[in-house]
Each structure stands twice: as C-alpha cells, then as structure tokens.
Specification:
Order of helices and strands: HHEEEEEEEEEEEEHEEEHEHEEHHEEHHH
CATH topology of the largest domain: Aminopeptidase
Largest sheet: 6 strands, mixed
Strand content: 25-35%
Structural class: alpha+beta
Oligomer: single chain
Shape: globular
Helix content: 25-40%
Length: about 425
C-alpha cells in the first residue's frame, strides 16, 4: 500500500498535521524494513547469564540466556575433539551470577563440557566440547515474552557419524557480524537465514484422520515434517524448527506461539484430509479466510499476541493501529504469495490436487498476525491411492521436494521479501 493511499484513507478523520506525522512515521518504518536494519543498540555490553541444556529424544538443545539481543554465528571444529563454537559480539559473562572473563561448566546430552571466553576486543566465544560428533539442526534467537524476561539463543544438535561431521564446511556462518562504531553507539546488522517453522498436524492423544488401512494422520504428518525439515536443512539456506518432533500432543495455541517466538519468516502446517466419499483425493493449500482474519484480530489481545510495533508506547494508539493493520495485510499477502508458488510445484511433481486447490479457512494455526502461514492438506487418507502415496517415503518425497522448491522461490529475493514484510 502506498503512503498516498494511506493518507487518502484517513484524511477525512485526521487533520493535515496528524496525517503528516503519520506519513513521516510510516516512511521511517518502511525504510527501516527495506534496508533490513535491525536498529541501534545501546552501548552497554550484553550480559550472558546462563548456558543450559535440554534433551528431546536424540537431540540436545543448547540455550544461552542474555539480557539483550546479541549477534552471533556458529561453526564446527572437526579436528581433534569435536567442538561447536558459538561466536558472539562482545558480551559480559555472568554465568550463575558470577562475573568473569572466562569459565567452564558441565554439559548434558551431546555436550560433554562447555567453556566461555573473550577472543578479541569485539567478540566472545562459547565453546561446546561434544561427547559425540553432532551437527546443528537449527539455530534461532528468541525475544522475551510474558513468561520470561531474557533473550535467548537456541541451538538444536543431533548426533551424526564421524564422516558426516568432518565433511561439515568450516566455518558455517549463522549470522555475519558487522560491528561499526559510531560515537557512543553500535550499529548491529546481521545477515541471517530465513526461519521456517514446520508444524506436523495432530499428535499424541489426537490421531487426526484415520485411513482406509488404519493409517493415523499424526504419523503421516510427522514423517512428512521430519523429511521436509531434513530436506530444507540440506539446502543450507534456512534455519528450521518444528512444533513437534515426536508423537506428542501440542495445543494449537502453542504451535502459533512457537512460530511467533522464533520470529518465523514462514510457517508450514502439514495435514492429511478425510472425506465422506472414498473417491475424493488430492492435495490442497489453505491460507487465512476473511472470517479467520476477524478471529485473529479478536484473539490478538486475549492470547497476548503483541506485535513489535505496539511496544513503542511513544506512538499514539491510532498510529500503532495503522501499523498493525499494515503488518496484518502484508502477512496475508505473503501467505497467498507462497501458496501461489507452492501449488504449481505440487502439480509439476505429478501429485494429485483438488479442484480450486488454493482455499481459505480460519484454522487456528493460520491466525498469527505477523507470520506468513499455509496449511497443506497433502491428500485424503480416506482414499486408498492417496493413502498409499502418503505412507510411502519414496512417493512422499515428491510433495516434500515440491515444498522445498516453492520455499526456495519464495526466499529467492530475500531483501525484497524483508522489505515487503
């Protein structure tokens, strides 16, 4: 939407001075998004307060808590003891309340021990000594929310064999640090990979649809989600996370919250359909319907879905409402954009599709106001042919690769995409 259009929409309600203020604010906001500038951080040094580990199946999660955002990258050291190094813009180490220049501690799971230190006047390092060769499945930063006050860096590790570990390129950058001194401030800019959250529908006590031969939808969606995650990671272009990686029941609200906490650039929810007629078959792709938009707006406050632009209390409520409306509109546009890229790829993969393949609904997982999202019904388990395709890893690979190709196209011009958001 152009600024002149926005001005025209509100000129009857606002005087000229108010419109000019809004126009200047929107101009600044759009320019900031267009150039992907993450802002000017305070000159004070970020304090890292904790390094923790969690086990989830055969994966190990590394959690780094800090009191403000910090630019970082990670890379592996394949020679000698296997290690993963997390390099950050200079921080103040205050682990367990003890401030020091360097220190160490015990790990868990795939991390035997960890050490931290400063390795230059502008950078610090966290060194993870591994108990076995491992790769980083995904990494991302999280902002504080209503449940916690800390910023977080998350790394998810999975064990690999020695050959795969040694074949990992080094370094493998997660973010390119650009530190520029300017007076008493630091301008921080990060080239980061797009963050994709994959949602395997249903799970645990909720089996979802049940196929002709007794196939559970929750099993098909999990197998597909894992395959999609691995395929996306193999490209080296994305950070990928999942709402569930095993047979666990996850509330719908938690699925949306996970995507928002990870600041996902794209949310893909995988499902398998059921129908009353056994001959009905084919995939379809859903984006948010107009009634779903109204539902999202109603749930924003009740579910504490606060957008970043709303955190600026210096702006008036009226201006914030305009900015929120712009973000919601652009989220909807980007969701439709991805759906329109995905459907031709599915068809080119010779995968069956329903008529009117692009559909709209108010599904809960599509309601996030600031995360482009699609729900993919991969086929009908109540159709014997679709069930056979969906339960075959060899055949299922075709629709997985179609999603990967669409994702590559969607993020092909990453700067343009960030500017649009």
């Amino acid at each position: 939407m152009r600024l002149c259009q926005i001005r025209g929409r509100f000129k009857k309600k606002l005087n000229k001075g108010q419109v000019d203020v809004i126009q200047r604010i929107l101009s600044v906001a759009i320019c900031m998004l267009f150039f992907c500038v993450s802002g000017i951080a305070e000159a004070r040094t970020t304090r890292v307060s904790d390094v923790r580990f969690g086990l989830e199946g055969d994966e190990t999660r590394v959690v780094i808590d800090s009191d403000s955002p910090v630019d970082y990258r990670f890379f592996v050291l394949p020679n000698g003891t296997p290690r993963i190094v997390v390099e950050m813009a200079r921080v103040r180490w205050s682990i367990n309340g003890l401030t020091s220049e360097a220190g160490n501690g015990d790990g868990d799971g795939l991390v035997a021990h960890y050490r931290y230190e400063h390795n230059s006047p502008t950078t610090s390092r966290l060194i993870l000594d591994l108990s076995a060769p491992a790769k980083v499945l995904g990494s991302y930063a999280m902002k504080p929310n209503h449940e916690r006050s800390s910023h977080r860096i998350i790394l998810d590790l999975r064990q690999v064999n020695e050959a795969e570990f040694r074949a990992t390129p080094t370094p493998v950058p997660d973010a390119e640090l650009v530190m520029i001194s300017q007076s008493d401030s630091l301008i921080r800019s990060a080239k980061r990979k797009p963050v994709i959250v994959i949602d395997a529908g249903h799970g645990g006590k909720d089996p979802g649809a049940i196929g002709v031969k007794g196939t559970f939808e929750k099993d098909v969606t999990l197998a597909s989600a894992l395959a999609l995650r691995d395929a996306l990671l193999r490209t080296g272009r994305y950070e990928v996370s999942m709402t569930r990686a095993d047979d666990t029941f996850i509330e719908l609200e938690d699925r949306v919250d996970r995507a928002r906490e990870f600041h996902a650039d794209l949310f893909i929810s995988l499902h398998a359909d059921a129908g009353s007629k056994p001959h009905t078959r084919g995939a379809s792709v859903y984006t948010l319907s107009p009634s779903g938009e109204k539902r999202s707006q109603a749930l924003r406050k009740s579910h504490d879905w606060v957008l970043d632009v709303e955190r600026d209390t210096a702006r008036s409520t009226e201006v914030n409402d305009i900015l929120v409306s712009l973000i919601e509109r652009e989220t909807k546009n980007q969701s439709a954009r991805f759906a329109n890229m995905l459907i031709p790829e599915i068809e080119r993969a010779d995968w069956p599709t329903l008529d009117n393949t692009h559909r709209n609904a108010g599904f809960f997982v599509l309601l996030a106001p600031d995360v482009p999202a699609v729900l993919v019904e991969m086929g009908f388990l109540t159709n014997a042919k679709d069930e056979a395709l969906l339960t075959s890893p060899r055949h299922r690979k075709h629709i997985i690769q179609a999603i990967v190709r669409a994702t590559d196209s969607f993020f092909e011009d990453k700067e343009l995409y960030v500017a649009q958001r």
